[in-house]
Request: fold
Amino acid sequence: MEVLKEKVEEEEEAEREEAAVRAERGEKVVRPMEVQREEAPMTQEMLRDLEKKLSDIEMAIPEKLSTFTKDTIDTSKLPLSYQSNTLKEEHLLQVADSFSRQYSHLCPDRVPLFLHPLNECEVPKFVSTTIRPTLMPYPELYNWDSCAQFVSDFLSMVPLPDPLKPVVQEEEKVPPKKYAIKPPRDLTSRFQQEQETKKLEEIKAEEERQLREEEERLLDVEKAKTDPLHGLRVHSWVLVLSGKREVPESFFIDPFTARSYSTQDDHFLGIESLWNHKNYWVNMQDCWNCCKDLVFDLGDPVRWEYLLLGTEKSHLSLTEEEEDGLNDDDDVENLGKEDEDKSFDMPPSWVEQIEISPEAFETRCPNGKKVIQYKRAKLEKWAPYLNSNGLVCRLTTYEDLECTKTLEIKEWFQNREDMLELKHIDKSTGLNVDYFKPGHPQALRVHSYKSMQPETDRIMEFYDRARVDSLVKREETSKTMTEYYRGRSDFLSYRHVSFGDRVKKLSLNSAESNPRPIVKITERFARNPEQPADEDVAERVFLISEERVQLRYHCRDDHITASKREFLRRSEVDHKGNKIVMTPDMCISFEVEPMEHTKKLLYQYEAMMKLKNEEKLSRHQAWESELEVLEILKLREEEEEEHRLTISIYDTKRNEKSKEYREAMERVMHEEHLRQVEAQLDYLAPFLAQLPPSEKMTRWQAMRVKDECLSDFKQRLIDKANLIQARFEKETQELQKKQQWYQENQVTLTVEDEDLYLSYCSQAMFRIRILEQRLNRHKELAPLKYLALEEKLYKDPRLVEFMKVFV
Amino acid sequence: MNWLYDSVEPRVMDEDMLKLAVGEQGPRDEAGQLARQEGILFKDVLSLRLDFQNILRIDNLWQFENLRKLQLDNNIIEKIEGLERLVHLVWLDLSFNNIEAIEGLDTLVNLEDLSLFNNRISKIDSLDALIKLQVLSLGNNEISHMMNIIYLRRFKDLRTLSLSGNPIAEEEDYKMFICAYLPDLVYLDFRRIDDHMKELAEIKHQYGIDELKQRENLIQAQLDDERAQREELEEHKAAFVEHLNGSFLFDSMYAEDVEGNKLAHLPGVSELLQAYKDKFVIICLNIFEYGLKQQEKRKVELDTFNECVQEAIQENREQGKRRIAKFEETHLLSLNAIRDESEVTNLEMKIAEHSKDITELFNMLMTLEMQLVEQLEETINMFERNIVDLVALFIENVQSLMAQCRDLENHHHEKLLEISINTLEKILKGELDEDLPYDVRALFVDKDTIVNAVGTSHDLHLLKIDNREDELVTRTNSWCSHLVDAIHKDEIMRNRRRVKEIHQYVDHVQNELDNLECSEIID
Reply:
């Protein structure tokens, strides 16, 4: 029950919003006129400025006012209700006029009321009748927020909140424990500390002051153009009243931005009047403190002067306030009968129901494209699949108010095959950052770079779980490459490679086969719990040019120092000319707990040999990483060029493959249908038609019908056989004739004639053969066909009762 | 085949033989050169091959502590022995010998691969310790009884088995039987067992296997029960209140009490005894529950303490590590700088500066350590106070409960005495209706005898109670003092270790600097 109720509420919200759309629509057309009536000398420029101010957040109306302006609508095609007023409406207009006269008499210093603007067809319409609650089939429109978002897209634009905003986690504070040690005694001089803090504070205060000054200066610059029309501007917005449908408190929705505002918000300076599809109220409360003190109890005639009496069951004392500004709070069930049970009722709305096609709903913005200019920023929106590269949104921020110097560009993509999601271009630093969704062939997550050239500054982050080597991040500069790993079975967590300058090669080999020499490789490992800390390497540094390897081991659980070992790989020859394999000074080690077996030269030698192999491997890894970078860069360039888009298999409209499949299926169905029709051919129809109508068939007649049908069929089979036979004979005769002719004239024939003759022969032979085959086939099948028909006739429902007797 | 070995003189496994083998099988080439230079210690050897040596008796292997793989095949060994110390052994090959019984493998818990191919073994047993066994080769032996297979069921990791060439392999049901009873086996007699075979075997021997499994499960359940009981008892012992959750103490009081048992036959005494027992058991249960509760409390106290101390040590350690890491950065840089410095005055200055750094590091680390020592000392003292208080409280309460037991006993004693004297009077008067057993009647000779008998019983009971109480008190106290001692000792050890570590590290760093200086001066 609860769920149902909630849904009803949402639906109703949706209606309200739709009504709002309609209201805006109706109103928008007339507003310029209306405003002009009030404040005569207003240029288009000022209007725009006004709009900007009204929409509360710095936002400008796009160049074209909206696609719903007069010129796009053919008024002659609109229904009659648009072009004329009914009697009731006329009456209402008179009521409104008299109301307006009284009002202006009573409150001469207030602005004339916004009661009956002209619609598209230049016909005055009372504002309430421009609202028509409508239920839409889209679940997104059932909640006020997503609905308002849609409406705002239809009308204007709002930037989405940054989807990449990090989530801040608060660290849990552990309560102090019983045996927690006391903090060490603080022996520092308190006086000194105080002096220090004082000094710091002074510095900080100074800094803050400077900062504030700077800010103020900036603000002054921006505020230079103070609004001369502050408080005079007019704007329409949506008020959702509290009470019903679990709306805890009243709030405003700005239709342009889809944002909700509390009724206490400073941006709303006052309310002239409210209306929904049933009534119209004039605010009689003082708005000296903006909207903060307003009481939204519409049943209170002192605060809210109503236009129509008793059309609403609003009560003064009820805590549930039921009225809205532009909204209605109707239940779904009395949608239709709302007009019957009221004393003087609002005439039914003259507007047509809003219809939004799924395409239009997906497209959202008019023509699928929209540009919103903000202060120092421009937001462009496109419908999905509109751009061939999948671009759906672009936010450009500028340094200056005139929007000439670009600061950064953010581009959002959708449905990209390479999973590109967001491209962030920082113009001031030249840094590009590409963000990818999971599923890139190289498991790329983030790629930030300044240029696509290899061996330059770049950072690539990866979805490490999708990679075999568990690489998390690879940072590159022109001289180094740093890789971070997570969760590897060999516990490698970090590898840093320093490159030296490329040695110039004299050979003809290209640059690719001339990798930069590696100077140093640093690798760090996480702790391997299966090994003792003294044997578990934490960091190893291969100083390749110096032929030196440094090892640092992990620290034991209860120690603060870690073992170290350094190998010098020098192949020297002693004074006798023998090669020195290993000497004690080739391995310098510091051991936290000296061990016996590590002192041995053999152990050290083996360790060194192992390291030698590992160095080779690490170098190879570094080389492979470089190759991979090249590969990724190449792939990225290809992807950028191709920018293929993926299409969901559920997208029946765009998915070519499924379309083809569907069409094929349809074709098959169609053919199947044809065949069925054929199968249902009624053999008996012509024979039954011969019988006298509307008489019950006798058995004799039935037998006759059957026999006739069969004999007819037999005759047809024989005819067919004869036909084929005749053709066959004709064809053979002709061939014989031709052969005869050929034999007679063989000597005199030219080569062409002979060729002609030969081709004729072969064709004739082919035809004869085919005819022969057909004849044979017919002979074979004819009895079967006959039997099949007989069988069928026996089973025919019209004859079956007569046949049973004989069977 | 054995005549061949018989004709040759059996050899003894002596030092020379082992040395030779180690030398031959040790590292090669350059490493070998080094090995020869330094000599190889037996305990560093991981793998040893001693085949075709005509060894009769395994000996002298105790030094090879870390041996992983040992090959003793193709000898004339008759008895498995001398392998007790080779606990790390993973691979043991004793094939082609003259072994008759499996024995002497009880310490080789890490053994995974055992080969006893071509011996004279007739029975599979004494392998219980080899829980990791994966490969067992027993081909060409004299195993003749199928029931030996069932013994192998206990090796959960056994995957490869060879038994060909044994009398049992001749039996018609041999393969089926093994497949059925060792379902985890993958290779039998060097061939993979196919799934079809497994299924067939399972169906064929289902009856027998089910029965066997049933029995095994029963035994397992019994073992589990026993273990659970043992664990429970251990827990109670830790709380010092074992055997107090029932009538054990009461029963023990009467177990050796001849007179008491005799007196139980008196009229009215059995009811009295029953009431006494009920009350006594209730008090025992009280003690028991209280003991468990207190144990829990002590545990929580100890855990909190340990956790806090560990945290403090961890934090201190992190600080120390940070200091050292910071120092190491500068250390390397300044060493390089000193190495590169050519001017003598600058050099000296730098060296002095660096040694100052080192001293500073040392002081810093030592300060940290001293700080920790002070902090921990305080905490430990606090804990000591608390735990001693807890224990004292426990003992006090238990003693008061025990006093209740004694009161009960006294009360019972009085009652019993009264009944006894009454009975005596009756007997003397000849008014006694019931028949008393002869030995009971013997007590009622005169007043002294009966009073003595009752008194003896009473004394015995009190003694039991006292003993139990003493045991509890002494054990509790000794636990407490041991705990505190251990904590103090641990802390001292920790401190010693850390100080040693710091000294060692600083010495090392200083040495590095000194070495540089030396080489500089020489240069």
Remarks:
- Chain B has a mean pLDDT of 87.
